Amino acid sequence: MLSYTEEVKHALENNLPVVALETTIISHGMPYPQNIETAKRVEKMIRANGAVPATIGIMNGKIKIGLTEQELQEFATNPSVEKVSRRDFAYILATGKTGATTVAGTMIAAGLAGIKVFATGGIGGVHREGEITWDVSADLTELAQTDVAVVCAGAKSILDIGRTLEYLETHGVPVVGYRCGEFPSFYSRESGYQVDFRLDTPEEIASLMQTKWQLGLKGGLVIANPVPEADALDHNEIEQVIKQALQEAKTKNITGKKVTPFLLEKVKQLTGGKSLETNISLVKHNAEVAAKIAAAFCRKHTGRI
Ligand code: PSU
Ligand code: MN
C-alpha cells in the first residue's frame, strides 16, 4: 500500500536523513497559489539542509511517500481532496479517493515508512471550550502512540493551549522548546506557557529521541520551534482576530473537521493576508530545523558521529 518516489526510496534504503511533510496544510491550510509555492520551497529548504523531503498523501489506493510535482499540484488545486486524520485513513485508502493527510495522518504514514522526523506548521489540539464540545484533535492521540518527532511552531491560539499541554503530559509526550523556554503560539513566539524541556542543538534532540525509543517509550515528541522574530505577529493583536474568528465559527455552527480550516481562512482574511506570510515563514523555518534534526538522528543511529 506504500508507494515511494525514487528519491525517498533511495534515501530510506541507505539510511539517509528524510523529513516527512503533510498535505493538509497544502489542500486545506493555505490558498492557491501560495500553497504550491510554499510546498516546493519547503522541499527545497529540506534538501539545502542535508535531508530528503517526503511529502505524504493518499491517492489511487496508495499511501504516497514523496510526491511528484504533478501530484503536489493536484493537492494544491483540486477542491475535492479530503482531509485525512486517523479516523478517515482506511476509508480514503480503501475507496481510492485522494486524501490530504493531517499531522495525525502523516504520522501514521511516516511511522509505516520508518521516517522519524516530520515538519509542519502547527499541531492540532484541544479546542477552546473543548470541555463542552469534546473537540480534541486526533493529532494528540497520534502523538501519544506513533514514534515520530514533530517539528512545529507550537499550537495556534485558536486552541486552548493550556489544556493541549495538559493532554500531552497525560499521554507522556515530551514538549521540547528548540532554543526557547516558552511554548510558541504559531503566529507569535509567546503563549504564556512554558515548554517541558529546552534543548539548543539538533544533536541533543536526536539523543532525546533515541533514548526515548530505546527505552520502549512509545509515541512522538513535539519539537516547538518559534516563528522567526522578524515575521512574528503581535500576540495581543492576533488574540483579538482569533476571538472574532471563533465567534463567527460559533454563529455559523461550524463543527468537526471543518473547524480548523474555517478558522485558518478567517484569521487570514481578518489580518489582510499578514497571517499567511507568517505561516509561510514558520513552515520554512520548521523544515530547516527538522532537516538538521533528521541528519543528527541519522548520524547517531548509524554510528557516524
Ligand atoms: N494548524 C495549523 N495549520 C494547519 C493545521 C493545523 O496551523 O494546516 C492542520 C494540520 O493538518 C493539523 C490539522 O493536523 O489541521 C488539525 O485538524 P483537526 O483540528 O481537525 O484535527
Ligand atoms: Mn476537531
From TrEMBL:
One of its GO terms (biological process) is nucleobase catabolic process. It catalyses: D-ribose 5-phosphate + uracil = psi-UMP + H2O. The keyword Nucleus does not apply. The keyword Kinase does not apply. InterPro entries: Indigdn_synthA-like, PsuG. Its cofactor is Mn(2+). GO terms for molecular function: hydrolase activity, acting on glycosyl bonds; metal ion binding; pseudouridylate synthase activity. One of its GO terms (cellular component) is cytoplasm. Its EC number is 4.2.1.70. Substrate binds at K83, V103, S137, A138, D139. Mn(2+) binds at D135. Belongs to the pseudouridine-5'-phosphate glycosidase family. Homotrimer. Catalyzes the reversible cleavage of pseudouridine 5'-phosphate (PsiMP) to ribose 5-phosphate and uracil. Functions biologically in the cleavage direction, as part of a pseudouridine degradation pathway. This is Pseudouridine-5'-phosphate glycosidase. It comes from Lihuaxuella thermophila.
